[in-house]
Amino acid sequence: MALDSKIPKGPLADKWTNHKNNINLVNPANKRLIDVIVVGTGLAGGSAAATLAELGYNVKAFCFQDSPRRAHSIAAQGGINAAKNYQGDGDSDYRLFYDTVKGGDYRSREANVYRLAEVSANIIDQCVAQGVPFAREYGGLLDNRSFGGVLVSRTFYAKGQTGQQLLLGAYSAMNRQIGRGKIKMYNRHEMLDVVVVDGKARGIIARNLVTGEIERHSAHAVVLGTGGYGNVFFLSTNAMGSNVTAAWKAHKRGAYFANPCYTQIHPTCIPVSGDHQSKLTLMSESLRNDGRIWVPKHMEDVKAIREGKLKPTEIAEENRDYYLERRYPAFGNLVPRDVASRAAKERCDAGYGVNKTGEAVYLDFASAIQRYGKEQAHVKGLNENDAALVKELGQEVIKNKYGNLFQMYEKIVDQNPYETPMMIYPAVHYTMGGIWVDYNLMTTVPGLYAIGEANFSDHGANRLGASALMQGLADGYFVLPYTIGDYLSNDIRTGPISTESPEFEEAEKNVRNRIESLINNNGTHSVDYFHKKLGKIMWNKVGMSRNAKGLSEAIEEIAALREEFWKDVKVPGEAEEFNEELAKAGRVADFLELGELFAKDALQRNESCGGHYREESVEESGEQKGEAKRDDENFKYVAAWEYKGEPKDAVLHKENLVFENIELKQRSYK
Amino acid sequence: MNLTLKIWRQKNANDKGKMVDYPISGIEPDMSFLEMLDVLNEELINKGEEPVAFDHDCREGICGMCSLYINGEAHGPDRGVTTCQLHMRMFNDGDTIYIEPFRAAAFPVVKDLVVDRSSFDRIQHAGGFVSVNTSGNTIDANTIPVNKHDADDAFDAATCIGCGACVASCKNSSAMLFVGAKVSQFALLPQGQVEATDRVMNMVKQMDEEGFGNCTNTGACEVECPKGISLENIARMNREYLKASFKG
């Protein structure tokens, strides 16, 4: 099958408007005859479920948590971008579009990204109308801050809990529809297969996680808003339950999986402290607005710090290497995430890491505390030379901006970041790869849609800060509700979909067989044992820096580990009960397949791109010497994989990316 | 660290349940409390026993999924944290730690330490929202100015994570801190005014129907709340309720 992206014709800025004017609509009375299943209730799924219900469709929504409000979008900290230009600093739809395409290292679709920029302003209006308490200035108007990779302040925020507030906004919109009976909510349910009837997605098989019951649910269309798969690395910033299962099952039913190797490594996470660690905690990128990143300039200082003989605060200014400011003077500490992550790894690999494992750099607020303190003292007419007063006033400003993050850091690391610099290191955060979708957000299976992080998205090879929340809500509130109507307009006479068809029968049987083989396996190792092993392979050979040899090894090692898993995994308890180990086993089984495809995709993409540093592809001369080298001639495409059984047999389809409005340039932040 | 854990085991909602002792060793102070339970579960699985079921997800203190009543306190002995942010450095070598589910009639036990908190969702279905269309064709955001003080107070109320620690800590199993926070967020903002009367009446009615008790101003909820939600919110809810009752 050739990939048809269905990008509308015409000038970039008119594409979305023209498309909306020309697609088919479903009249309000007929919407009542149509059922839509939405899997996942984060920013994308939650906003989609609410909006589809508002439009009049009958929605069934599913989440594995005990409440939609717990979806992992809730943990997003920093903010959401919108081209409002409230600050008058020159922002526009075009600039947001341009920054996003450039930030994604020219591996995203122009038309999709422009649409994202175009609807971004509506998101803010919508959320404010819902009562989302964004940060305000004293005049009562909305406040903005800046984020990595851009030169304007376009980020709207609610302290360090923007994701929480936006999700609660979407959740309250859902609550309204649940209260009206337009959304039927299925909490603690996990989707375990998509049912395809006559080539169209017509339902799902779900497991009730409390009773273990296997259920059939039918609908005229199925929407996956199931998030990303960063947990394939075991350690990541994702919630423990985040998984690839729904997306992977969709892949197995014919949905192409695009750019699986595109993973964002976030530069500011709390470093790993030991082998028992279950997950990594992110510190919002917004901290880089005020925090300066450094390591000691001299190796003897590094050694003294690791031995506990020297404190970071005791190292003089001239003996610190503010390496981002040194290497990238134009953007400094605000370079995009991929650049900041690689630079941290480079310093740590060179031996300058500041914790006992050698995998940490400092994020220092001392100069911001000074700067803000002096400003406050000046504003209040107090003595600007009183060091203690300045520090106190400065800390108060920092507390107002990032208080919850500082508290979180202190609880985890047991150090006070107001007094001593934070330690940070890159960690797996967001996956830009995902299910391939066309401009309408439909997958290669008719009637099956993917939104938010679950699709291969608008972010290209790297995601800029504050753009994930934007995409989730754009897809859910403003894009899918239009585009799905075009498809559903053919279903107004279809009537309810039966769950008694052979296709449902077969899908349910598949699910049952798999559960039975897991529960009756009687192996010797726990699920986590395999998951941790997979994570180690992924991080060491398919992580921030990759080469062909390592990737080829990883492919074989993962295949072998998968075989071992199926022979030797031990899942206690029974199938017909609340059984977290069983749920986890199914998810890890899918990660063991995805991991291999992930490595295979990374192997074929012999270019450095976004956060994906191929050691074979480096700039060898000029100003950019040593920086990652993108290869537009050979790799300017989306890699979409078709399922053919084992991951090694997956077939590559290429969607060539066409850039008509942006000139492809080397990304320089110097 | 070597510890003795006394953990509530209950196979399902209908089972009677009992405390079971588990000695555990090799616990490091920088492990989180849930990572300590991971270690225990790994041991149990390897011994062929069933692991202890407990709720958790983000492990960053924000999703509100983790619960646990530890040594008689919701989310354990540390202040201002959820269980996932509680670290073993808060305990001493040789300690005995009691781990129980949140107990309240409106939070039935699902299994072991897992409880069903969907009563919170149902209270929100009754009115925890602004009835605005999700069509995106609303007015420009800056045409609804909100003074910074009100916006900050609304934000503080909105930071409630719905974990249920307030209910678990209350001798009456009252949900008034939770409901107060939800009512307050909208009561403080211009967006929520139009349906303020119905909102508070409906939410309080649902709260009562779910079987939560009443507030007797003990204040344990505020002390144990991992997000520092203040009692002021209960007072505000009471004022809103009174106002609404007069309008009736």
TrEMBL record, chain A:
Domain Fumarate reductase/succinate dehydrogenase flavoprotein-like C-terminal: 531-669
Pfam families attached to this UniProt entry: FAD_binding_2, Succ_DH_flav_C
Alphabetical keyword list: Cell membrane, Electron transport, FAD, Flavoprotein, Membrane, Oxidoreductase, Transport
EC number: 1.3.5.1
Subcellular location: Cell membrane
InterPro entries: FAD-dep_OxRdtase_2_FAD-bd (IPR003953), FAD/NAD-bd_sf (IPR036188), Fum_R/Succ_DH_flav-like_C_sf (IPR037099), Fum_Rdtase/Succ_DH_flav-like_C (IPR015939), SdhA/FrdA/AprA (IPR030664), Succ_DH/Fum_Rdt_flav_su (IPR011280), Succ_DH/fumarate_Rdtase_cat_sf (IPR027477)
Record bears the keyword Flavoprotein: yes
Record's keyword annotation contains NAD: no
GO biological process: anaerobic respiration
Coiled-coil boundaries: none
Domain FAD-dependent oxidoreductase 2 FAD-binding per the UniProt entry, residue ranges: 35-469
Basic and acidic residues bias: start-end ranges: 612-631
Membrane topology listed for this record: Peripheral membrane protein
Cofactor: FAD
GO CC field: plasma membrane
UniProt-recorded Gene Ontology molecular function terms: electron transfer activity; flavin adenine dinucleotide binding; succinate dehydrogenase (quinone) activity
Residues the record marks as active site: 337
Region (Disordered): 611-631
Catalytic activity: a quinone + succinate = fumarate + a quinol
NCBIfam families: PRK07573.1, sdhA_Bsu
Similarity comment: family membership: Belongs to the FAD-dependent oxidoreductase 2 family. FRD/SDH subfamily.
Name of the protein this chain belongs to: succinate dehydrogenase
Organism the protein comes from: Mangrovimonas cancribranchiae
From TrEMBL, chain B:
CC cofactor: [3Fe-4S] cluster; [2Fe-2S] cluster
Family note: Belongs to the succinate dehydrogenase/fumarate reductase iron-sulfur protein family.
Species assigned in the record: Mangrovimonas cancribranchiae
One GO term of the biological process aspect: respiratory electron transport chain
Domain of life: Bacteria
Positions of the 4Fe-4S ferredoxin-type domain: 151-181
Protein name, UniProt field: Succinate dehydrogenase/fumarate reductase iron-sulfur subunit
Pfam families the record matches: Fer2_3 (PF13085), Fer4_8 (PF13183)
GO function terms (MF aspect): 2 iron, 2 sulfur cluster binding; electron transfer activity
InterPro entries hit by this protein: 2Fe-2S_ferredoxin-like_sf (IPR036010), 2Fe2S_fd_BS (IPR006058), 4Fe4S_Fe-S-bd (IPR017896), Beta-grasp_dom_sf (IPR012675), Helical_ferredxn (IPR009051), SDH/FRD_Iron-Sulfur (IPR050573), Succ_DH/fum_Rdtase_N (IPR025192)
